[in-house]
Structures are given as structure tokens and as C-alpha cells.
Amino acid sequence: MTRSMLGLALVLLVAGRATLSGGGLPAGQAPPAASPAAKNPHLGNPQSIRSGMALYRIKCADCHGLDASGYRGPDLTAVMAAGATDERLFQTIRKGVPGTDMPAARELDTPDDDLLMMIAYLRKIGSVAPAEKPVGNVENGGRLFAAQCASCHRVAGRGGRIGPDLTRVGATRSRAALTREIRTPSEWITPAFETVTVVTKDGQRIRGTKKNEDVFSIQVMDARERIQGYMKSNLQDIIYDTTSLMPNFGPDRLSDRDLSDLLGYLMSLRG
Amino acid sequence: MRALLMIVIASATLAAQGGPPRVTSQDLLDGLRDPTRWLTNGGEYSGQRHSPLTQITPENVDQLVAQWTFQTGTLGSFQTTPVVIDGVLYVTGFNNNAWAIDARSGRQIWRYRRELPDDIRLCCSAVNRGFAVLGDRLFMATLDAHLIALDMQTGSVLFDVELADYRLGYSATVAPLVVKDKVIVGIAGAEYGIRGFIDAFDVQTGTRAWRFYTVPGPDDPGGRSWPVGDAYKRGGGSIWVTGTYDPQLNTVFYGTGNPGPDYYSSAREGDNLYTASLVALDADTGQLRWHYQFTPHDVHDWDSTQVPVLADLTINNQPRKVVMFANRNGFFYTIDRVTGKVIVAKPFVTTTWAREIGTDGRPVLLPGHLPDEDGEKTCPDLGGGTNFMSPSYDPATRLFFVTARETCATFFAYDQPFKPGEQYTGGATSRPRDQKNFGALRAIDPVTASMKWEFRYPTTSAAGVLTTGSGLVFAGDGDGNVMAFESRTGKNLWHYQLGFAMRSTAGTTYMLDGRQYLLVPSGSALTAFALPQKR
Questions:
Q1: Contact yes or no for A215 and B428 at CB 8 A
Q2: Which residues neighbour B442 within 8 Å (Cβ) at sequence distance 6 or greater?
Q3: Tens of pLDDT along B339-378?
Q4: What pLDDT digit, counting tens, does each position of B61-114 carry?
Q5: Average pLDDT of chain B to the nearest whole number
Q6: Nearest CB to A6: which of B125, B416, B423?
Q7: Which of A120, A179, B61, B483 has the most CB atoms around it within 10 Å of its CB?
Q8: Against a cut of 0.80, is the pTM above it?
């Protein structure tokens, strides 16, 4: 927690400095130094690539997948295939992506050299990755979303609140991850969206998503989007469900073609 | 008569100016005998963190009411144990701020703020774990690796000595320990390739009396447990949790930190003494009396910087002087503190890396737990079965109470070149996707190392534990609750949501104006509880 706060403070500091220097450089002041990634000594160096792989697995693979093809986070091979420069990659890793799960890599924890080795590794695997497949019909995907998803998911202030807000989902999820989360949503449930049923002492059953919990209390959003906390001592039972409130959208419910259109729409949502 | 009165006033003024020693060495030896005071990190030299106070009982603890809250107004969390003397609290906080606070009202009396360099290297936040005290002086270790003495009345600096060069990654967060005329302190920074040590300084002059390196040199005893070359110079072995002291044996006991680099085995073949160990040192000279290494050649960042708790037990009808140690590696140990030999050792959480502790005292390793680039899963995780949060021992129930963590992690390791002043871990960890970690307060019988009861928490906790003579255990979960339990049964009797989890802090308790207070640091706040005042 403290480390996150420090990280946040650092981001704010960086942002503050950026704002201060936003009015242009005073006369005589040197222009900003070029990104260290502009001249990466580790590109193509087998030893550096090996170290970069180790660093990537430790710091990135949990979200972006062991092979960088995306898991919860975006498919990095696709990002590179779409033309992201090394400077852009460096900048994104160093500063994180505000409003997403992507944290800033503090210089004290991750020196420039580590970042450059990670980029050398990504370039090595990215150079053989297939390009992203063409997306589906975005317009039809939008219609499908409105009909099947919007009652639970919100985009740009419209839609339901039971499921996660998807306003920026195209910037934070790979197509593979979205496919998994649509076809089999219970495989991985975002924290604060786990399913729970609380049973009050008078037998009332309230099903919803668990927002928080400690030894003595639990906080829930019910199917009517009402948020409410309960003292466990006042409850008869709490049933923890490993199944997501979101149903499986298998091929019988959403054809492969419709899925492709829906993915096209979701990937266009970048906030 | 008037002349006599003048003399009396003059004497009183002089006494106030000169300030007679307010805390003596005998006071420190007496520990919690004076119920208005809490003078050392663990309350007593034994580190038992057990108060004899009995006003708050299992019957009335549910009537506890918050009396006041002190907010630091600074970013960052407390990891401190407040010192309590004559109605005043002396408290260290984030970024080397410190305060004297009125224990009756929670109002600040003075504040100390250290100017810190911008380029200090800290693995784990800008915390401090508390003051030590002797006479009218407070002693504090600083993030830029100094030891300072402060005037108890004003917070002004009396001496300031450097322990090591912070630019090379050295730092200090531990609460010092005063023994006789020396103040003992240790150094941290094992994630930056430092060589750990324990120092003792003269309390008056700040002159160094002795140094014990937790990583021996090539020609020292134990030096062959490191590869030939410079590995020992960056071998780690940090000290960041306060040790304990046995006056009869004139011995101090300290748990030592992980070897460096944390995870990459090939950089430091051998047992890597005296890292991940318990060291027993002569309090006057710093000479090593014995050592016991919990985790030879540790590759999971399992610092043994837990509190070595001292007690006298009867085992097999024999009186034994023991040191009890719930280790980050997942095992609980009862060790003879005269000889350093293990009496009994068993896991107190799920452990997958060792089958047992052998009769020779070494862990019997299980295969497949050497981290590499592909990663290997081991339980517990790097946070360990427990960590730096204080345990407590209640001599009446003869139970040891500890905040336990049920966790696993995937450990990765890779070759990392050493650069002075930069992080040097040689790897890191991640949580397996299907891993569900949780915490618990556990009561352990130190004679058999078996668990007597537990109270589970939905998430892991880093809260310390306090016990009292009325049969209460105070602990905290990972979600901001401070709680009271019946020590014999583990029955939960009271809780209060603090708004921030107790991260390595534990309750302290003391008498003031006839009332027993429970003081709890959490987040950037101190909260004092007491029973309702009778009117």
C-alpha cells in the first residue's frame, strides 16, 4: 500500500514537473534528453535478451502473458506489430498508463538498463509474432453490445454497473483475453466482481458482487445495483460462488462471427 | 527562611535544567514492573510483549472506547512501537519524523523532522520502528544510515553518528536497543548489495564500542561459507528488527536478514553465514557466542528478522532457558539460548521446501525449490510464514501467539550484474493465478511446537501481537481491524475498525491516571483506547 502511494506520489511529481515545463523552455536551457531507448545497446545481444526475458517474466508476464501475447493486459506482440516505437514502449513502462492496472516502473526499482533489456527481449519475440487478425464489423458489434452486454456493463457513462466499466477496455485487454472473458467469464473474475449471496437472519437472500470484506463485515452490490454493507453477526449465511454473475457466451449464444464483431467494437473502446 | 526557600527554588531550577536521569539501566531491566511505562521495543528485554496489567479483562474488553486519535499529517505508515514515560509518548514515524505526544490528550508536544537526502535507497518504504531510551535521551536509527540521540524534553539533536554510506544502499529502520551504557543498532539494505552488521555505541559520546559483521570476511570463522572473491562484501544479512537481551547471560540475540542477491543461488554458493540466522553476542564486546542458521543458503528472501522471544520453560521436567522463534521460512523453533541447539522445530504454516528440521538442526530439503528463469512455486511466499510483526508470549498460559501467513509464490531468479547503490536481488516473485492467500492468529505451545488454536483472517495480516495478565490477546487483521481474543481459547471478544491495517505495529498498554490504555498505531494515526471513565 505504502509503495503504491509512493508510486502515485512519483507519478504526480512527474506530472507536476511536466506541467511546469509545459510553457516552453526558458532561453539557454537544454532541450530534454533523448529517450534512453533511442540508442538501446542491448538490441540483438543474446545475453541481454536472456536477462530481459527474466525481467519480463517477473515484472510483466502476470498480466501480459509468458509469451507477451496478452492475458489480462494487452497483447504486446500486436502493440509492436502496430508500430509502437522503442521510445514509446520505454515511456509506457516507465510511467505506466493512468486509469489502468499498468503501474509506473520506479527508476529505483527498475533502472533504465533493465527496461532496455526488457525491450530487447520484446523485440526478439515481437519480430516473429503474427500480425493482429483483421477486426470484425464494429457497427454490428456495437449493436450486439447494446442488446446483450449494456445492461451490466457501462461505456462512457451509459449502461449498467453490475460488471466492470468497459470505457477503456480496448486499451487494457488483448483480443485473446476478451475472447476468454466473454466465452468463459468464470475462468478469472476481476477482484470486486466476485459473486456472493448473503442470507439475512430473516431468510432474505441477496445475490450480487462482493466489493469488500473483512472478518466482521461484507460489502455487496446487489442485482439492482444497490451498494450495502452487512455485519456478519447479523447474517445467517454467506455463500461464496466461484461462478461469475456473467453467463457464458458460448457459440450457441454468440456465434463466432458475432463474437468477432463484438471484439471489434470492444477493441475500439479506448476512452 | 527566605534564604532557605531561595536555595530550594534554585536547586529545583538546577534539577530541571540539568535533568536527572529519567530512565536508568535498572528501569530497563525492570521492564514493565512500572505500569505507567513502556520503555523498550518488546516492553521487556525478553521481547515477550506481555503486560501484567489487568484492568481491561475478557469480561469488559467489549466496552473499550477510543479516547483520542493522533494524525501525523504526513504521507506514509507507522511501523513503530511508542515509548511511554510519565504521561508522554515518544513516537517515530515515516520519513524520520518523530513526536512527543501528550498521552492524556493525544496533542503534540514537540516534533523532530530529519532532512533526508533525495537519493536514499530504500527497498521497502521510508519507515522507522521506534526509539530506545536511557537517561533523558532518545535514540533513533535514520534512513540515511545514522544513529542520532535526541533530548527527550525538546527533540533537539545531542549526537549524530554515521553507520555507513547511504549512497551505497545502506539504511537503518530498526528501533535501537540500550544495554547498560551502550546503544545497539543494526544496518539494513540487503536488496542493494550491502554487508550487514550490528554496532554498539557509547550512549553518552556516540563513540562506537564494537561492530559485529553478520557476513564474515574470508579469514574470519564462517568465512568459507561464501565463495572465494567479493561475494561476502555484498552478502546482505540486514538487521531491521530489534533484538532481545538476557542479563544473566549478558547476551543479546538478533535475527539476521537474507543473503544478497536474494534469489540467484549461483552468485553465492555455500551456506552464507550468518544470514537468515540467529546470532547470540556478548553484550559488552559484540563477540559471537553461538549462531544458529535457520535457512542455510536462503534463496527465497526469508530474512530471519523476527523477534527472538526469551522465556524459561520446563521441558521434559527440566528447566530450560529458551529462545522462541517463528521464522519467515515457515518453521517455529524452540532453541536452547545457552547453547544455540534446537530443542524442537515444526512448521506453523504450510511449507513445501523442507520436510523437517533434522537432528543436526539443518532443514531436510525437498527437491525443486531453487528459483530459476522459468520460476518455481514454493510455500510460503517471500513474505514468509510470518515476518517482522512482533509475536507475544504469555507465561501464564505458556502460549506463543503469532500472526501467521498462508501463502505461496512463484520465485524467479536470474544473473544480475552488481552495481554499487543499485538494487541487487537477482530475481523476484509473482503470485500464482490460482493462489488464495490468507492469514491467521495462531497460538503455539513452545514445548511441543504444536498449534493450540487459530483465528483465521480472509486476507494476510502483518499486525503484531500483545498479551496481558488478564488473559487477553490483542492482534490485527489485514483489513484494518484491531481485535481482542481470550488467550486460552482464541474466542474473539472485541474489534474496532481503524481504517488502515496495523502494518508491523502492535498494541502497547500502560496505566495513566488510574486507567489502563491500549495504544494502537496504524496507517498514519495513533489511537488510544480505554474503558469508559467512572463518574
A1: no
A2: B348, B401, B402, B403, B404, B451, B453, B454
A3: 999 999 999 999 999 999 999 999 999 999 999 988 999 9
A4: 999 999 999 999 988 999 999 999 999 999 999 999 999 999 999 999 999 999
A5: 94
A6: B125
A7: A120
A8: yes
Residues paired with B394 in a beta bridge: B399
Residue B392's pLDDT band (cuts 50, 70, 90): very high
Q: Is pLDDT at B405 greater than 70 in this prediction?
A: yes
Interface contact B422-A111, CB threshold 8 A? yes
Query: Rounded to 5 degrees, what are φ and ψ at B340?
Result: 85, 10
Tell me the pLDDT tens digit for each residue of A43-84. 988 888 888 888 888 888 878 887 787 777 888 887 887 788
Nearest CA in chain A to B423: A109
DSSP states of A148-210: HTTTT-EETTEE-SSS---TTHHHH--HHHHHHHHH-TTSS--TT-EEEEEEETT--EEEEEE
Q: Is the model's pLDDT at B381 over the cut of 70?
A: yes
A58:B412 CB<8 A? yes
**Residue numbers in B near A54 (CB within 8 A):** 373, 412-414, 427
Pairing of strands B277-282, B288-293: antiparallel
Does the annotation count B86 as an active-site position? no
For residue A32, give how far its alpha carbon lies from the nearest alpha carbon of chain B (Å): 21
- Terminal Cα-to-Cα distance of chain A (whole angstroms): 27
d(CA B382, CA B302): 6
Q: What is the ipTM of this complex?
A: 0.78
CA–CA gap between residue B509 and residue B49 (Å, rounded):
10
Q: What whole-number distance in Å separates Cα of residue B455 and Cα of residue B465? A: 13
Task: List, for residues B433-473, the tens digit of each pLDDT value.
Answer: 778 899 999 999 999 999 999 999 999 999 999 999 999 99
Using only C-alpha atoms, what is the Rg of chain A?
22
Written as nine digits, the cell of A135 is 477486426
Does A6 touch chain B if contact means CB atoms closer than 8 Å?
yes
d(CA B374, CA B211): 40
Residue B55 to residue B468: CA distance in whole angstroms = 10
- Check if B75 contacts A (Cβ < 8 Å): yes
Amino acid of residue B466: L
CB contact under 8 Å between A108 and B76, yes or no, is no
DSSP state of B476: E
Phi and psi (nearest 5°) for B458?
A: -65, -25
> By the CB < 8 Å criterion, does B457 face chain A?
yes
Kindly give, in sequence order, each residue whose CB lies less than 8 Å from that of residue B327, ignoring residues fewer than 6 positions away: B294, B295, B302, B304, B306, B333, B384, B385, B386
Which residues in chain B touch residue A51, judged by CB atoms under 8 angstroms apart? 414-416
Q: Does the pLDDT at position B268 exceed 80? A: yes
DSSP-assigned beta bridge partners for residue B162 = B146
